[in-house]
Amino acid sequence: MSYAPRSFGDVEVVPLRDAVGPMSGPLRSPPGAILTGGSPADWAGLPADTWELHFRCYLLRGRTGRPVLVDTGIGGTDSPASNWAPVPGALVAELTRAGVAPADVGTVVFTHLHSDHAAGAVTEGVPAFPNARHVIQRAEIDWIEGGGPNAILERVLRPLTGLIDAVDGDAGVLPGVRVRHTPGHTPGHQVVEVGPLTLTGDVVLHPVQLRDPAIRYAHDRDPEQAAATRAELLRAVRAAGGTIGTAHFAEPFTDLTDRPAG
């Protein structure tokens, strides 16, 4: 399945389907619920206790310059995500279908360094995108190096030595493309802004959070901060009449307006 690309200003945004698979564990039922909170009205029309999880990256192509890749997916069978995600991912095949070889990619932007967003950056111990600069928030690197997931440190960050550009907070990456620090899911989580489009990473994980941003996700590093970040981001995008591009919804793009979600 391929998604239709959309253009935002001078940038074409191509969603890339890395994988699809069921999320393990109950969606709402205790114990071990993945999402907690929300009213019956919030959940109306949504699956009661299952979640078919899409794993999605994005390719950005401007009129000039080399392509930008946002996140690198779940990786191969040797990936740190292999114990829970449906590896191998199809990212390279998706890029090929879009007419882009891994060596063509000029910049990789990680929304964060969880294995389903970053593991595909390294294949068999070697950078998968050898000519790309890899943009990460410094706070995310500090978290990983200071006691975050060791598999990411050893199998993703270490092999990318010399290819990383650490940023502090909000920053321009390329003309028309910016990152904004959005902590909570992880300490150095960032979203990517392309004009009116915001690629949300894991700030927003499930459609029900559009209805109530306070609904908590079990794997947020700081659930309270994540909920506040989510509410502020959605408020700003709605007020601007913008669009979000999500990593895990069934469809990549959701247009928002200054109205309550529903």
TrEMBL record:
Keyword check for tRNA-binding: no
UniProt KW keywords: Hydrolase, Metal-binding, Zinc
GO molecular function, one term: hydrolase activity
Pfam families the UniProt entry points to: Lactamase_B
Protein origin, superkingdom: Bacteria
Tagged with keyword Calcium: no
Stretches assigned to the Metallo-beta-lactamase domain: 54-248
Protein family (similarity comment): Belongs to the metallo-beta-lactamase superfamily.
Protein name as catalogued: MBL fold metallo-hydrolase
Species this protein is from: Sphaerisporangium rufum
Organism phylogeny: Bacteria, Bacillati, Actinomycetota, Actinomycetes, Streptosporangiales
